[in-house]
Amino acid sequence: MILDRDKLNEVLNVIGTAVGNKVMRVADYVCFRVDKENQSLVLSSTDFHAYLSIDCGSFTQFFDDVPEKFLIEYRTLNSLVKNSTTDIVQIVGVDDSHIQVNTNGEYIFSKYLAIEDFPSADFVQESFVTWPVPLIQSTWNKAEVAVSRDVTKINYQGVYFDGNFVSTDNRRLSVIEGDEYDGTPMLIPPIFGVILKHCRNEIRVGINSSSNLIVIACDEVGLLAGVRLIDAQFVNYNHIMKLMSPAINITVDKQSVLGAIARLKTFTDKLFKVVQVRVIDDGGYKLVMNIENKDTGQEIIEIKEYDEVSAPYIVDSKYHLENMYDGLAVTESSEDVEMKFQDDGKLWVTEDRFTYLLANVQ
Fold first, then answer.
1. Would you say 41 and 34 are in contact if contact means Cβ atoms under 8 Å apart?
2. Where are the alpha helices (DSSP H) in 242-300?
3. 316: exposed, middle or buried (C-beta count within 10 Å: 0-12, 13-18, 19+)?
4. Per residue in 275-307, pLDDT tens?
5. Which residue intervals of the chain bear CATH 3.10.150.10?
6. What is the pLDDT of residues 210-264, one digit of tens each?
7. Regarding the domain delimited by 125-238, which CATH topology (the fold level of the hierarchy) does it fall under?
């Protein structure tokens, strides 16, 4: 069979999202399923946490020189296709153990012989909800900003969906209010967001009725994916949200504060990432950020709006610098950002349906 090389390269980039597993050798392979009668070629991959398949029939010419199903090593094939300069890629069956791939030259691949090891995509979703990709991508980018990188805290390693999109690492909290939802809450792993990056126009999302999977379909790219949900209890974030009671609200220029944080990051290292934040009245309210490590740095930013919500409170707290940057950076506005300081040191960043909480460093 003959495939368009550019299209094949795009497909391999997508299914590479779910390749590799330290235990299962078959996860290093890409599965080709050929249906010459219906002019269908489906490429699939799995790391046994996610399963991806893409229909490539629209850019494939079929001949009788290729088996109906075979597995070849993903990384070698992907590198070969990416570094070739031909317009097409020809794939030919050699014998029961080998596949020949022709681009600029002729390359022989050993097939993975235990084909039955590769799982099938038996997705039976209860129902689908349709989301525009730009909307869900923007929502996901905000939601995942507080996902924990600590592998020992499994209940913090995904985005919780109960109508709202929520994540936390126990030091910060990100919440995006969604529409009313009466389905089953789910804890979605970060690979969902990686798959989203390869989707266009709109996606359909549903829950697999026979196993703990979220099913993603994108007709625009011929994608069908199943992602295993995280089996863990999420925290009661609604209780935390009810405790929001800012004492001081300020509005600052977004690019100024992000630029200041980026410069202050120069003075951090792997162990020290703390910035001291103060609000002062020096002939006008100013936001002052200090960092003291081996070297020191200070940034002063004009405050555009200052609102003392409750009794007088002096803002003087320390925060994780990178976590502070992340919460401010994902806001939609390109001009201003609102920062709300609570009298116990907590910092809230709010914009429309988005709320970000950053606890102070003691």
1. yes
2. 254-264
3. middle
4. 999 999 988 999 999 998 878 899 999 999 999
5. 2-117, 125-238, 243-358
6. 678 899 999 999 999 999 999 999 999 999 999 999 999 999 999 999 999 999 9
7. DNA Polymerase III; Chain A, domain 2 (3.10.150)
